[in-house]
Amino acid sequence: MIPLSATMKRVSRPARASSNTKRRNTTHKAGKSGHIRIIGGQWRGRKLPVIDAEGLRPTTDRNKETLFNWLMQYTQNARCLDVFAGAGSLGLEALSRYATSCDFIELDKQAREQLVDNLRTLAVPKESSTTVHAGDALAVLPQLNKLPYDIVFVDPPFNKGLVEPTLNALDALALVQQGSLIYVEHEAALPPLWLPDHWQVTKEKHTSALRYFLIEVS
Description:
Layout lengths: L7 E3 L22 E5 L9 E5 L9 H10 L8 E4 L6 H8 L4 E6 L2 H14 L6 E6 L2 H4 L10 E4 L8 H10 L8 E7 L6 E3 L2 E8 L3 E8 L1
Parallel strand pairs: 4-5, 4-7, 5-6, 7-8
Antiparallel strand pairs: 1-9, 2-3, 8-11, 10-11
């Protein structure tokens, strides 16, 4: 694990979720699948199949709409990274809204294969650079050989302790720079996070089950 910076600061903690809060879409059911819907841009209204795999929890349309309202001025021509891609809902939405490129990282083989199929279905333009990386996100991040990303999506499986190590890695590996935006979604009961002093939470919402917010690297 990459050590915390000495210049970290604590992010305020939201109200704790009730003990009977249940995660959705966390149990693998063989043969069962669902779909995600692209809500804006060139592929608006398109529905794409996704598998029901353990830990796969696509961002809801409502949360996605809020997020891309926050990102409205920044998505076009952006270089994006979807760290725990799953169904690829966030990265695909960004590409639909004319992001220049998106790297996806996904550990689950079936989810990864479905994401590749969905990219083919959408006939992503050749000028858009999209790569689906196989493996554990924290192991893949150091292998990325690109300029810093403009927008990064961090929406890991719940209760795995992945949020803070991922944010630390983005900072330590210089995968973000001044002006980069990082979207984070995690369970509401997660203990307070520490962020570098030059990172600022600019947008934030939470429900009884989860918290989601936007960080700007300043």
